[in-house]
Design goal:
There is one protein chain. By secondary structure, the protein is α+β, with helices and mostly antiparallel strands. It has one domain. About 30% of the residues lie in helices and about 20% in strands. The protein is built from 4 helices and 5 strands; from the N terminus they run H-E-E-E-H-H-E-E-H. Strands 2-1-3 form a 3-stranded antiparallel beta sheet. It has a two-stranded antiparallel sheet with strand order 4-5. The protein is globular. The protein starts with a helix and ends in a 15-residue tail after the last helix.
Amino acid sequence: MGKLQEWLDEEWVRIDSSGNIAGDCGTSKNKKNPDRCLPRSKAQGLSKSQRASTARKKKREGAKGKQVVANTESARVVRKRKGGVIARGCGSVLNDRRKVTKGSVTRV
C-alpha cells in the first residue's frame, strides 16, 4: 500500500473551536469555513487547548478567505521514516513530484 493510500485510509475527525472532537471530518455545517480536521490518533495525542488553538487558527484564517491553513506547531502531523522524521505533506507522500522552475533547470 502506498503512502498516499495510507494517509487517506486514516480515520479523520473534526475539531471544533472549543477543542472538542466533534465527529467525522467533512460533517461541518459551515461549508464555506469548515472546522479543522486531524487524524484521530493525532487529535487524541493533543491537549484540549492545543486542539482548540489549531481549530481557532483555521476558523480565523478561513474567515479572511484562506482555503488552506497550516496547523499550529503542536498539531503538525509528522511521520517517521527510516532516515528520521519528516513532515507529512505533498513532498513526503509524493516525493518524486517536485516543482521545477526555470532557474532550477540545468542547461547543457
